[in-house]
Amino acid sequence: MRSKAFTLVELLIVVIILGILAAVVIPQFSDASNEARDSSLTTNLATLRGQIELYRLQHNGTYPSATAATFISQMTTKTNPDGTTTGTPTLGPYLQRMPNNPFTNDATFGANATDYGKAWFWDGAGVFHSLDSAANAGL
Description:
- The chain is mostly helical.
- Helices cover 43% and strands 6% of the residues.
- It has a 3-stranded mixed beta sheet with strand order 1-2-3, covered by helices on one side.
- A hairpin with a 5-residue loop joins β2 and β3 (128-130).
- It starts with 7 loop residues before the first helix and ends in a 9-residue tail after the last strand.
């Protein structure tokens, strides 16, 4: 009489095949994660740079402040043509909030273009990029 169970050899073959498939598929998921972060970073930079240029156009050619707190305030609240927020400002806001850098998961500002570990760099004169690593600085 023959039993209807799997043999040990059949089970080992199935386990080996599943292991090979896992070894092929798992690295593709990590690549997709990095590609998603790159795409998100590119989108955030395009949005921020566009809003900075809109601010400049509406403020007679003047960029937002290079100081992080003032920059965030000028971009996320209404401002006057001189960049102040007192009285009854009519321009902006340009952003609801500062977006997080997808590589650092924060919205901190670096003081100079080599201050890696911060999320963003803004020099107050038109240069805005990510600072999450040397590889992405300048994006």
